[in-house]
């Protein structure tokens, strides 16, 4: 029975690809268990071949698991009726090149049996939302890759889905388009939708995700909230405006006296890229090991040997001297 607070529940999920003779060729996903909560942005990370896209396809029912179970939107993944409530942007958008933006969205709206008036209204709003108003009458074959990603996202949202699955949503987008895409993902969350995204752009995932999971060779290695995973627990960070030399010398005693009402004191956070690379490196060295959020937080800022980065840099500088 699926927890009503969860949109997705995955339990002991495995996927094995076999050759012509039925022999095991690749174990793409290994005993994966995780939940995705209603109304959150969930980031699924991992290097190439880690099982991200395979997991996405099993969620949609495009692939069948070898073992384990998936409950999604209160249904089994094999129940195709649940796909009416899901929007999906694949890594490569397969769109009809000779249609324009209006015709593309009208076509996909028809697949959901939407009335003509509703299709037209939804298409108008989505074209405006993804920034293609000036290119709406151009055939898709004339679109750049970034524009194709935008219209691909619009078609994923044409049915006003409860759950949105995005595979590399910022691929091919320029920095402005990337910022627009991230803003749109956050807006979808604010509207109460649940978003699951896979991406190699770690900074993008860090900016929008509430929780993340890191996969390596089909296994779940790290799962937790972004703030929790990236917090540097052994340090404390104090941020203020520009302070005089005298104020800096007395900072612990006279911050209030110097009127620094906007002082921000918090645990600093590492970069998601650092967490990702460390997870992959440690997983290669210790296969079969799963790391807790506390373990990863404790090792942030350290070099591979466990020595703090600052000390390692100082030692290297001394030896060069």
> Spatial order of the strands in the main sheet?
6-7-8-3-9-10
Distance between the termini: 65 Å
The CATH class assignment of the largest domain is Alpha Beta
Taken as a percent bin, the fraction of beta residues is 15-25%
* Helix content percent band: 25-40%
What profile does the largest beta sheet have?
A: 6 strands, mixed
Give the overall pLDDT as a whole number: 83
Low-confidence stretches: 303-321
Domain module count: 3
SSE pattern, N- to C-terminal: EEEHEEEHHHEHEHEEHEHHEHHH
List how many beta strands DSSP finds: 12
Walk me through the structure.
The protein is α/β, with parallel strands linked by helices. The protein has helices spanning about 50-60, 100-110, 115-130, 145-155, 175-190, 200-210, 225-230, 245-250, 250-255, 270-285, 295-300, 310-320, and strands spanning about 5-20, 25-35, 40-45, 65-70, 75, 85-90, 165, 195-200, 210-215, 220-225, 235-240, 265. The protein folds into 3 domains: about 5-225, Rossmann fold (3-Layer(aba) Sandwich), CATH 3.40.50.300; about 235-265, no CATH class; about 270-320, no CATH class. The strands form 3 sheets. Strands 6-7-8-3-9-10 form a 6-stranded mixed beta sheet, sandwiched between helices. Helix 2 packs across helix 3. The longest helix is centred in the middle third of the chain and has 16 residues, at about 175-190.
């Amino acid at each position: 029975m699926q927890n009503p607070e969860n949109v997705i529940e995955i339990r002991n999920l495995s996927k094995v690809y076999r050759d012509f003779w039925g022999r095991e060729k690749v174990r793409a996903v290994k005993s994966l268990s995780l939940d995705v909560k209603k109304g959150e942005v969930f980031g699924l990370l991992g290097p190439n071949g880690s099982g991200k896209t395979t997991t996405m396809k099993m969620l949609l029912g495009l692939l069948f698991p070898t073992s384990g179970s998936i409950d999604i939107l209160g249904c089994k993944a094999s129940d195709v009726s649940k796909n009416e409530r899901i929007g999906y942007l694949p890594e490569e958008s397969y769109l009809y090149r000779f249609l324009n933006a209006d015709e593309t969205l009208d076509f996909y709206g028809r697949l959901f049996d939407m009335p003509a008036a509703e299709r037209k209204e939804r298409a108008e709003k989505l074209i405006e939302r993804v920034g293609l108003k000036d290119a709406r009458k151009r055939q898709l074959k004339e679109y750049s890759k970034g524009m194709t990603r935008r219209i691909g996202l619009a078609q994923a949202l044409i049915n006003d889905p409860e759950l949105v699955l995005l595979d590399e949503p910022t691929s091919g987008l320029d920095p402005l388009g990337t910022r627009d895409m991230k803003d749109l993902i956050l807006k979808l969350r604010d509207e109460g939708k649940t978003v699951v995204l896979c991406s190699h752009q770690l900074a993008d995932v860090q900016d929008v995700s509430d929780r993340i999971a890191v996969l390596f060779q089909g296994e779940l290695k790290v799962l937790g909230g972004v703030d929790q995973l990236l917090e540097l627990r052994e340090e404390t960070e104090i941020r203020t405006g520009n302070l005089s030399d005298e104020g800096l010398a007395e900072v612990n005693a006279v911050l209030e006296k110097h009127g620094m009402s906007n002082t921000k004191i918090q645990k600093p956070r590492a970069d998601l890229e650092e967490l990702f690379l460390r997870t992959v490196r440690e997983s290669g060295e210790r296969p079969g090991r799963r790391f807790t959020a506390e373990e990863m937080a404790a090792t942030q800022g350290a070099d591979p040997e466990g020595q703090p980065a600052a000390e390692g840099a100082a030692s290297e500088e001394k030896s060069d001297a």
